[in-house]
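1st attempt posting a full record on here, be nice pls
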Amino acid sequence: MSETATDPTYLNTSYADKQSVKALGARWDPDVRRWYVPGGLDLAPFEAWLPARSPQLTKPAAPVTGTAAAEMTMPKGIALSQLMKGVASAVAQAYRAGVWTRVEVSRADVRNGHVYLELAERDAQGAAVAQARAMIWASTAATILPAFERATGVVLAAGIKLLVRAKPTVHEVYGLSLIVDAIDPEYTLGDLEARKREIRERLHREGVFDANRRLAAPWGFNAVLVVAPEGAAGLGDFHADAQRLERFGVCRFVYVHSRFQGDGAAAQIRAALLQALDTWEHDAWPDAAVIIRGGGGVNDLAWLNDYALARCICDLPVPVLTGIGHERDSTVLDEVAHCSFDTPSKVIASIEQLVLQRARQAQEHFDLVVGGVQQQLQQAKQGVERVDTAIRSGTREQLAMARRMVGEDFTAVQFQSLQGVRLAAQQSQALVSQVRHGASGLLGLARQAAQKRYLNVLAQSQHALHAGRTKSQANWRSVLERAAMQAGRLRSDVQRAMNEVDTGSHQALASARERSQALMREITGQGPQKTLGRGFTIVRRPDGKVVTGATAVSPNENIEIEFHDGTVAARTLKKEEQ
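the predicted structure (as tokens):
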């Protein structure tokens, strides 16, 4: 016995059944997202999808007699599916339009373009006070998510707070869920900025906001502590340049790893910093601590806006350099650190620049020392020449004076001898001999003293000149050797860079060739039969022409539907049946 629906009757269908019920005349209700049979249609063709109905009590063929006979009654209450349908209808009526709602994302998944969310509201202690499932249909997500990401720089993920326009819906099997069709980017930006502002104000109240920046900048770099996510692209760029400094013995880098996003990331970074510093002697701290990571979305950076981590950096005894890897937005870590950079590459470039500056200063000081030594040698040489000239002049004066004194004495003795020649001839002769002998001895002593002093001064000056010449030659050879080493290093770096470019270009060409071949294989592997095997069909008219759209067929027209395993004849509805 057939039954005709007087009111819309909702069906229990799966995704695979939609074409079948649609062909029989069912219609789609977008509010409750279910197929239904319009009033006036026969329900018999839809028997397989009709919801279970309460069984009707049938009258017995003969009356039941006896006191033990139980009186048969109608079942009490309504079916759960009927109750859920009523709830769904009431919710649909109450929330025909979406409601702007503040939520926090607990989980976000993307499947077939649809975005499935788990939402929550938490109190000040972090405990959940409300939870709900939500979804953004693929067509809506393709419109609102790119606009949201462009405005905020945030990728939809766990931990982010949103202001969404949500429409509640109830399904008798899956329960309550929210359909999101709009997101306000200003609310998310305001929440992220409010969190950063609260941390700033607290650090200012405690008087430590700029404590790390007040530390003296490193004069040079001999040892550096680096904290980064393991395997991060930014760490690879940093490590490649840092290895060059380590290879030449300029600076030593100690690496520790930590997560930089997700719940507990800030605490893990803080623990890695403190544990690494505990291994250093207090009188031999590293010159700086470096915190780096690769690029990421603003919501990835939000995990670093943590008070405990920021306070830890403020209290560190060494300068902190950050290279978080995001040019447009900054974190509280960038603000409290001694110095911040956009990327890890710029951090290592700054370290190299300071090392190079100190090396140039050392070269300049070395050149000043060499110039000073040469000047001192020249002055010493001139001093020796002046002393030699003075000694020679003094010796000549002493000899002339000695000659004058001897001549005067000889004249006096001769005069006295002439006066008393007769009385003291022998005495005068002895006195002349004595005078001559004394003068000869004095003259010899004077000559020996002058010669000895001259030789001593000459030896000292030659020794000073030889030592200065030897030291100058050693310094010159050292300068030449350093210049040769630097030229060799530059040639090696240029050759290595050329090799890397050559290898990278070959790898890129090989990868492009493989992708092109794979794409050609995929294109050539496609065909109608393979497409039919995935659940698609081909609709044709009796003359074999393919129907490509609903407007291409007329009401009450015969058609053929081809599946992967055969063909089924069908007929379109008449206008009065639609």
